[in-house]
Amino acid sequence: MAKSKLIEKIGYGCGDMSSSMFWKIFSYYLPFFYSNIFGLSLVDAGVLVLVTRIWDAVSDPMMGIIADRTNTRWGKYRPYLLWIAPLFSICGILLFTTPDLDYGGKLIWAYVTYILMMTVYTAINVPYGAMLGVMTDDSNEKTVFSSFRMFFAYGGSFISLFLWEPLANLMGGYNQPGGWFWAMVMIAVACFVMFILCFILTREHLKTVSTVSVGSDFKALLSNKPWWLLIGAALCFNLFNTVRGATVAYFFQDIIGPEVSLAFFGIMFAFYAGLFLGVGEVSNMVGVASCVPIANRLGKKTTFIMVNASLVVLSILFFFIPCTPTGFWLMLIAQVVISILTGIMSPLVWSMYADVSDYAELKFRTASTGLIFSSSSMAQKFGGAIGGAAVLWLLSGFGYITDAEQLSAGVVQPEGALLCLRWLMSFIPACVAALSVLVVWFYPLTTERIDEISRELKKVRSVE
Hints:
The strands form two sheets. A two-stranded antiparallel ribbon has the order 1-4. A two-stranded antiparallel sheet has the order 2-3. The protein contains 18 helices and four strands. It has about 475 residues and is an all-alpha fold. The protein is globular and about 70 Å long.
């Protein structure tokens, strides 16, 4: 099969640019929104995040099965980009709407809108992810597609995270519900456009047909050793990102302070959570651009292990950085290096899922691309659910104060809560990255084995 056109790779990247703009805001700002803007307690917000994300994760395989059995003139997975894009944007706006209700009514509203948003996210993102398995039959090309995908994803994340606080301030105030609502309206419109562009610019080139029952698909999935190992490693990777990301807004509020400035060649600029996260997204893009040459040279498995081992060391070092002007620069540098490494990881994981899908097709004779890719989305969401809830519950357990009136009256955060924030940015992510190294150590799909699978599949596949 000839190499895919550049325009298709750009189009494919537009899809995850849209998804990531929403996902990063959900992961990094939604816990803060629920506890400090919307008005939920930390415990209730933690339960909400956990329950809705678990439902979201469980629904992923359902959507994967539906997508695998969809047949239209546009393909199996691509039409969902067109069908679901409007709902995707509308639900995002509803999620950041604060109704004038009592506490119980607001809690119900939060559950309904969050579950609805995550259901719609699944309905568009699972087919989008599965498209990678039918756009090319070349393993290296899949890594290239994944790199375009993640480069655009981090670009979109940078835009949304860097602009979120300024947009909220411009549209009504960062500490006001209206500011958050109108900021999300602007982001939602951009996300809709990106998904439509993804639909227009991409094509499905491989024709795969699911000829076995749903039960057989699940049986094959549960017998797939590489899938089990990769989903465990991917869950750890997403847990690493979510714990750090969901902590940043609190960390800047209470450890660094809301009005810190840094000097760069005599120019002063604000050092705030959005800047810290935005710099991370740009650095992620550097990592994504580095993924293909590194993975081609070292192999995907070796790259995965080396990156996560480095994340363990850097995360531990982050704990010892002092809160001084020099320390703030060191934090920013650490964020750059950590984000470059996680940027390498992101396309690597998606490319490895495509390899697992090929392995399953050859071994079990089942074209369950959507089901397998939905498991990657499931791992992402379980990682987000556990990470987001853990941050909120740990802060609650250590006595973190969210009451604006108490804080404005001069009440300070307990020392235990501040120490908890520092651990959430350092030792806890380090432990998760170490577990990821241990899991992927046993992953069996080496470069040689992947090449062998690709040669065998070319004999049995129908290529457009």
